[in-house]
User: What shape does this take?
Amino acid sequence: MDDPELCALRRKLIVDAAETLHKHRLIRFNSRTQRLDPTNLGRMACRYYVDYETASLFRQDVELGVDEDRVILRLLGLAKEFASLKVRDDEESELSNLRRSAICRVPIVGDFDAPEAKVQTLVQAALAQAPIKAFSLCADSNYVQAVRIYRFRNKEAGRSRERRAASMRAHVPRGISRMRSSRPTVSAGLSVSCLFCASHLGQSTFSFA
Assistant: This one.
């Protein structure tokens, strides 16, 4: 016979996990009926193997509608998947040289001793196909699977734009909704987006897929 206390503990752990995922909008959890239903965000997080905290972080960013290179790179650096990438003593000099060179075209945001700055630096170094000397940095460059996480962020951004467009169409006169701007729209994040696409197609010397 099952231990009642063990069963109660298992149930509590499951409910706590469900409530956490519900809070971050990866599932819909009805605490009364105990029913679990996935959301589109949750499905995409599963598809791209993205941590729930990373998914929630990107969702909040996408809702703000900011699409700048520095913001995208900083978000990649803040991803939960890279929290363990500490800056080692023997890496500080090379990371500093990379940041001061033309390799890092986008300014690094955040504490240089934090994982987020290290990830931003390695991402730009990989996109520029810059040689990395330190063995530990080479290993970390292979670990930083930025393309997969960026693709998740891009998918969520696309869904958000579709929702905003649908909302706008519902609130503007029909004649105005048919109007088209005569000027082309250029994304502020175009350079980073194109470089990520290039690396995903195998044009980078690093394993970023």
Q: What stands out?
A: The beta strands are 27-30, 35-38. Confidence is low (pLDDT under 50) at residues 167-209.
